[in-house]
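Dear support,

I submitted the protein below through the web form. The confirmation email said the job was done, but the results page showed an empty box. After a refresh the structure appeared. I'm attaching both so you can tell me whether what I see now is the final result or a partial one.
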Amino acid sequence: MLLVAAAIAGAVLLGLAAIILAGGSQPLGVDVWVHDRMADMANDGVITVARGITHLGDSLVAWIIAGLVTVALLAFRKWPHAIAVGGGMLLAIALVRVGKAVVERARPLDAVAPGAGTSFPSGHSTYGVMWLVLGIVATLVIPALRGRRWPVVLGAVITLLIPITRVYLRPHWLTDVIGGLSGGTVAFALAGALGIWLYARARRAPDATRPRDDGASARSG
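What the results page shows now:
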């Protein structure tokens, strides 16, 4: 399932990058339309709230949280989950940097929130997928949260709100945040799949090395 999600998201990311590059890295028609609608809907109170939410996808915030959670998971020997969080963030950082360097898309000029570097893909949207992953991991490693849905729902809401704020505050085009969500899905899904595969392999290893019980001891009696 994780590999399927990574494949689909990867196809979306590459497809968008190809379309944007074919257009000279300029905003698409839908980008301009959505951007203009967000400008028309600008409201000081909503902008203040959106600025607070968008900080949850800041690179420094995401990197620190992912790092601390990874260390905590390793301390409790939850290394498959640590790979999903820490490895996913490292892959996400790599995808964002490569994407921005290759596409070199300019940001909108009327943003009401800061943004560094080029526009595609949105780093905030990419790193924001971490919140959904943290919600899932919490239900797997914290006994009191096992079987609970609200951590996953909360993580999913935050993951979706971050790209919405990036479009509303106008430091990104719509396709930037779609690319970011796709890139984050690729990164964390691949890291999660790797963690599961390594864990399964480690569990099979003792069985492979354990001496076979062929009943010799019973016959020797």
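Response: this is the final, complete result; the empty box was a page-load delay. Residues 214-221 have pLDDT under 50 and may be disordered.
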